[in-house]
Every structure is written in structure tokens, then in C-alpha cells.
């Protein structure tokens, strides 16, 4: 299923060229998988040496080698390529190894392409691996985009890992919105103290008040205030 997802994504990324594979320039390209062949087309033709090293790693069956390839995409020259966010998005969502996916999220988060990464981080925030979800929240911490609050709210309300719920609650202090305030008040009833602690402090940061861990007191206060945001 993950390979099918990657192939579907690549079909969209290739755009007008379609998914049909043109005549290969080498026997190697004729025998490689459609996924790797498509990634090869996305990479710039030059510099040839860097391109060759990248493909050797990204196409390697060894997860550690693929991880090295992902890290190479974050280096100075490759990080400036227009196609780099797309390739990182594919690796972040499609690689079978969670460490490779998490590394791709990390590298993507370091690029100055906020609009291009939000869709990817929305998807990786729901990854089966806590490691990938954790790296996603780290990447979100460095972004300033109103769409981020929806991702954080979902993690606060649905994540099975208490450490990730508490991190989401902490980051939500940046968003003085009514839906955020209501979610943070609800989080005061979380079974894990780390979550309730961060929820309380985020509420205090947003409102300038502190009613401890009493959801009723917070709701009573909010009713007396004008909406923070429409």
C-alpha cells in the first residue's frame, strides 16, 4: 500500500509528462522500479556527480543509505532545488522505514518552503509511527502558519502518545483562537498530568489569567470575555 501511495503521488508530481516511462537512457533505468525512475526524472540533470550519489542512496534497499540520501537533500545546493520538497514529501509519506520518514520530515522542516510543506506535515502528523509524528511536531514548532493550529488540535485530541499530546498543547499557546481555547480547557481533563500542565500554561499564555486545572472556572471566565477570534 505504501508503494502504491508513492507511485500515485509521483504521477501527480510529474504532471504533464504523465506516468508513462519514456525510453530509458541506460539499462539500469530500464530495470529499476517505476518509483525510483520517477524520482530520477525529478532530479536536476546537473551536477551529475551529486545526482548520481543521491540516486545511489535513495534507491538503496538499505534504510540507512536511504536516510543518508534524504540528508543529502538538505545540503546547501540540493536544498535550493525546486523539486527537493516534492522528493522529501514522497520519502516522508512513502518510505517503509519510519526512521527514513522521520528524517525526511526533519529535513523538509528546515527548508524555507512553508506553503509547500503544510500538506505533507498534515499527513505525517497522522503517521503510524510515533517517531514520525514527533518529528512532525518539531517541524511545526519552527513554522508560522495559521493552518498549523488544525494539525496541533488533532494531535492534542487524538494522539495515543501523551508526550505528543502535551507537545501539541504547549505549541497551541501561539494561537489565540476560540477553538484552541476550548480544546485546551477540555485537555485539562486528560489522564496524563504532562498534558494538563501544558494545557493550563497555554491557557494562561493566551488569556493572561490562571484558573489552575479547573475546567469549570476556565469556562466561566471565557463566557465573560469577548470572543478571542471570530
The tally of domains stands at 2
Provide the helix percentage.
55-70%
Mean pLDDT: 85
Major sheet? none
The total beta strand count reads 0
Summed up:
By secondary structure, the chain is mainly α. It has helices spanning 2-14, 27-31, 34-42, 48-58, 63-73, 84-94, 98-110, 114-124, 130-141, 148-158, 162-171, 178-187, 193-207, 215-223.
Question: What does this 3D model show about the protein?
Answer:
The protein has 14 helices and no strands. The chain has 230 residues and is an all-alpha fold. It has two domains: 1-8 and 60-145; 146-230, Leucine-rich Repeat Variant (Alpha Horseshoe), CATH 1.25.10. The longest helix has 15 residues, at 193-207. It is elongated, with a radius of gyration of 21 Å.
List the helices and strands and how they pair.
Blueprint: H1 2-14, H2 27-31, H3 34-42, H4 48-58, H5 63-73, H6 84-94, H7 98-110, H8 114-124, H9 130-141, H10 148-158, H11 162-171, H12 178-187, H13 193-207, H14 215-223
Observed structural traits:
mainly alpha; 230 residues; Leucine-rich Repeat Variant; 14 helices; 0% strand; 66% helix; 2 domains; elongated
Amino acid at each position: 500500500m505504501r508503494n502504491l501511495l508513492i507511485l500515485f503521488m509521483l504521477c501527480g508530481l510529474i504532471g504533464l509528462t504523465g506516468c508513462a516511462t519514456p525510453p530509458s537512457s541506460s539499462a539500469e533505468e530500464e530495470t529499476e522500479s517505476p518509483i525510483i525512475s520517477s524520482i530520477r526524472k525529478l532530479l536536476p540533470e546537473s551536477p551529475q556527480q551529486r545526482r548520481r550519489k543521491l540516486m545511489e542512496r535513495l534507491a538503496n534497499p538499505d534504510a540507512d543509505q536511504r536516510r543518508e540520501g534524504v540528508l543529502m537533500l538538505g545540503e546547501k545546493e540540493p536544498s535550493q532545488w525546486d523539486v527537493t520538497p516534492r522528493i522529501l514529501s514522497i520519502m516522508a509519506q512513502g518510505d517503509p522505514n519510519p526512521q527514513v520518514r522521520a528524517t525526511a520530515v526533519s529535513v523538509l522542516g528546515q527548508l524555507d518552503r512553508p506553503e509547500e510543506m503544510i500538506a505533507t506535515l498534515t499527513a505525517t502528523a497522522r503517521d503510524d509511527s510515533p517517531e514520525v509524528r514527533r518529528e512532525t511536531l518539531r517541524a511545526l514548532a519552527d513554522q508560522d502558519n495559521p493552518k498549523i493550529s488544525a494539525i496541533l488540535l488533532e494531535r492534542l485530541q487524538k494522539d495515543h502518545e501523551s508526550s505528543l499530546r502535551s507537545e501539541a498543547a504547549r505549541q497551541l499557546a501561539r494561537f489565540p483562537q476560540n477553538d484552541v481555547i476550548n480544546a485546551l480547557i477540555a485537555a485539562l481533563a486528560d489522564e496524563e498530568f504532562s498534558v494538563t500542565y501544558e494545557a493550563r500554561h497555554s491557557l494562561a499564555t493566551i488569556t493572561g489569567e490562571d484558573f489552575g486545572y479547573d475546567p469549570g472556572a476556565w469556562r466561566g471566565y471565557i463566557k465573560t470575555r469577548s470572543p478571542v477570534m471570530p
